Amino acid sequence: MESAPSQRAAEDPLVAGFLRYLMAERNASANTVSGYLMDLAQFAWSRWGAAARPPFAWSAVGDGDARSYLSALARGSAAATTVRRKLSALRAFYRYLQREGAVRDNPFSALKGPRRAKTLPKVLSVDDVDRLLARPAADLLAGAVGAYPARRDAAVLEFLYSTGCRISEAISVKWGEVDFSRGTVVVTGKGSKDRLVILGGRALKAIAEMKEALPRERPELSAGSADMFLSDRFGPLTARFVERRMKRYLAEAGLPTDLSPHKLRHSFATHLLDAGADLRSVQEMLGHSSLSTTQIYTHVSVERLKDEYLASHPRA
Fold first, then answer.
1. Torsion angle, CA of 20/26/27/29, rounded to 10 degrees?
2. Is 191 contained in some domain?
């Protein structure tokens, strides 16, 4: 549930129009829209006070107000990525206001956020992935998990590592989108863009075993329009549920429990490049619009090679 100030910000006519624009014309996700609303609300609190009521005087905001807000964020020890996101939201909002004729100038257009620190994504080694993916079957054998939950967990983890999909993409897959004969599946990524990804043999086997574990008296659960991954009670599967299950298996495998399902996506890309895969092919598989986004995984591969060199070469 959003806080009261955010709800008040959403009642501002210009903010409400901007949110509709994001959904209708920019095809933004619910999470993106919610994030933009929070960023606009935070600026409104800073400029007019938390008790202020809409409509807000957006046209009265000048370059000095914008610079002061950015400075306040920096003094508050906000992370560089957070500051850049808030600046991007406000810049986009004012571009919308200019388009609508509500303001003449964009006070945030000339501002630059702090440089983003270059951090390499954490990845699991191939052995770590093997240990993690073996846990659902081990728990089933030990009687710690039921047949369908264990098969489902195994299939989800295999799917994520086999395809490099985001968790949101994986839990949205329908049975009818999987081509078992070709080993492919169509997923819907950011911006509602569809792409074809590859399912390896182990992932296909895990999905088939999960399907076999579905109750035979409920054929609708495996219909073409049905979600492929379901909860223990055969309802919709959530990203949070998958995260909790993965933490359990990470702990059992003796791996850091702060790793998220997204780390399987990082591992997928890094392992492909380590094995000599073409960078543009990996870009296509990940659904990256820019090759530069994919190139970070080449740095991960180089860092790994350097670690091996330093550990093994007698004159390193």
1. -80
2. yes
62 and 159 co-located in one domain: no
Continuous segment of H or E residues that includes residue 68: helix 63-75
- Catalytic residue of the set 166, 245, 263, 266: 166
Asked whether the bond before 5 is cis by omega within 30 degrees of 0, the reply is: no
CATH of the domain at 221: 1.10.443.10
Please confirm, yes or no, whether 190 is among the known catalytic residues.
yes
Kindly give the confidence (pLDDT) of every residue in the chain, 316 residues in length, as a single tens digit, with 9 standing for 90 and above. 344 667 888 899 999 999 999 999 888 888 889 999 999 999 999 999 888 889 999 999 999 999 999 888 888 877 888 888 999 999 999 999 999 999 999 999 988 877 766 666 788 999 999 999 999 999 999 999 999 999 999 999 999 999 999 999 999 999 999 999 999 999 988 878 899 999 999 999 999 999 999 999 999 999 999 999 999 999 999 999 999 999 999 999 999 999 999 999 999 999 998 888 888 898 999 988 888 778 777 777 766 666 766 776 676 5
288 assigned to active site = yes
Q: Is 262 in the active site? A: yes
Domain count, the chain: 2
Question: Out of 131, 135, 265, 266, which one is annotated catalytic?
Answer: 265
Domain range for 19? 4-99
CA–CA separation, 134 vs 261, rounded Å? 15
Is 267 among the domain residues? no
How far is C-alpha 142 from the geometric centre of its chain's CA atoms?
A: 33
The answer to whether 197 touches 185, Cβ cutoff 8 Å, is: yes
Is 265 catalytic? The answer is yes
Q: Do 161 and 49 sit in the same domain of this protein? A: no
